[in-house]
Amino acid sequence: MMEAPPNDIDLYGVLGISRNASKAEVKKAYHKAALSSHPDKVGESERADAEIKFKSVSKAYEILSDDDKRELYDAQGMSAFEAGNRGGMDADVDLEDLLAQMFGMGGGMGGMNGGGPRPSGPRKPRRGEDEEHPYNVTLEELYRGKTTKFASKKNVICSLCKGRGGKEKSKPKECVACHGRGVQQGLKSCKGTGNIYRDKDRCKKCKGERVVEEKKVLEIYIPRGSKEGDKIVLEGEADQLPDQEPGSIIFSLVETEHGTFRRAGPDLSAEVQISLSEALCGFSRSLIKHLDGRGIHVKHPQSDGEPLRSKSVIKVPGEGMPYKKSELRGDLYLIINVEFPDAYWLKQDRHIQKLQELLPKPADPIQADTVDDVDYVKIASIDGFGAGNEGDQWEDEDEDDGGQPQCAQQ
Questions:
Q1: Residue 378 DSSP one-character state
Q2: Most confident by average pLDDT, 69-78, 180-189, 196-205, 230-239
Q3: pLDDT digits over 315-368, tens only?
């Protein structure tokens, strides 16, 4: 391998590697040097020097990471890449372009995992903004999945002028407001294009706007098992602009509250009512209608005299929400509420006596030295708890008689 010509730039020295370094070693050294010399990593006073070093590091990597360019550099040095020579680089290198080459994206360090320079060629068009909207869905729709169509209005590139804004063969003139730079977005004159057509030269279809409004039927597919916050993306369906890749329409799912079921991840829960008789004697019946309309039948026989109590929970495996792209399902948790009979359901003394014989015996009475028989209110409300007068105000009987309060005798 030939040495670099005298007084030439030593690209190997810029990256701090030997001349026989492998491609992996070149890439590793490049990442390290690029991070340490990035202009954003230094103070304002050192930024100019850092930019020079940063460009040198990027130039060294572009040449040494390419087998053909590296061979050319080893043979002829940097003179092989002067303007006009094959494979040469522009001496006035833009920092943003270097960042894009280094990290696969413009103006940032976030793409370090991407490796080295991007392939040469025309730049990818800028991407337009996404449009985000909330989309309300019921729990039934999330359980079963849903496909729906709707009409949408969007701007599309004018088919007559192909987005130029002017008639065929007509030539625009430079915008006087931005001097042709097209950097002032929102100008009524050129709308950021830098050019403007005379009224008579404007496209008859779009009136010089370059885009026209169009109606389109779009389709949304919500997979079964989707959840709140999931996003449905319609790629490239946002407004179009010339020289831009259209953004996407994004729907964010919002789950509406359900009257029966509650969801937690893949699991469902619901409260069900059973009678006192079922709590004591067992049951076999459909307890609830599921989100797809099926009845959920539960057989719960009486077992060793153990009753079901309120707030007991019955778990039904595999009857929760479906997992996306799977046949698996979560579980269904049924929370039991025991309903007591209405008033006066049991009137005959003989039936009361028979029921007392069947039910467990009451606890032993409380033993106390003094026992008072008290009156009580049969049907009361806890709302009155704590609302009574405290009764801690002392009243002087003499004040009621118009007398003066008496002083204590000394």
A1: S
A2: 230-239
A3: 999 999 999 888 899 999 999 999 988 877 777 777 778 888 888 888 888 889
CA distances, 406 to each of 192, 392, 409 (Å): 96, 21, 9
Q: For residue 189, name the pLDDT band (cuts at 50, 70, 90).
A: low
Residue 88 to residues 39, 84, 92, 348, 394, Cα–Cα distance (Å): 25, 7, 12, 109, 104
User: Which residue has 């209005």 as its token pair?
Assistant: 153
Q: Quote the distance between the C-alpha of residue 141 and its chain's center.
A: 20
Question: Sign (positive/negative) of CA torsion 338, 340, 342, 346?
Answer: positive
Kindly tell me the sign of the dihedral angle through the C-alpha atoms of 91, 95, 97, 103: positive
Q: String of b and e for 217-238 (b: at least 16 CB within 10 Å)?
A: eeeeebebbbeeebebebeebb
* Interatomic CA distance for residues 263 and 296, integer angstroms: 17
pLDDT, residue 259, reads 95
Let me know how many helices (H) and strands (E) the chain has, helices first. Answer: 9, 15
**pLDDT tens-digit readout, 140-155:** 999 999 999 989 899 9
Task: State how far the Cα of 291 lies from the Cα of 137, in Å rounded to an integer.
Answer: 13
Q: Which helix (H) or strand (E) holds 30?
A: helix 23-37
Which amino acid is present at 220?
A: I
Burial of 154 by CB count in 10 Å (0-12 exposed, 13-18 middle, 19+ buried)?
A: middle
Contacts of 276 (CB under 8 A, 6+ apart): 338, 339, 340, 341
Return mean pLDDT, the chain.
Answer: 80
Phi, psi for 322 (deg, rounded to 5):
-75, 150
Of the candidates 238, 270, 289, 265, the one whose C-alpha atom is nearest the C-alpha of residue 335 is: 270
Q: What is the pLDDT of residue 346?
A: 77
Mean pLDDT lowest for which of 3-12, 111-120, 342-351?
Answer: 111-120
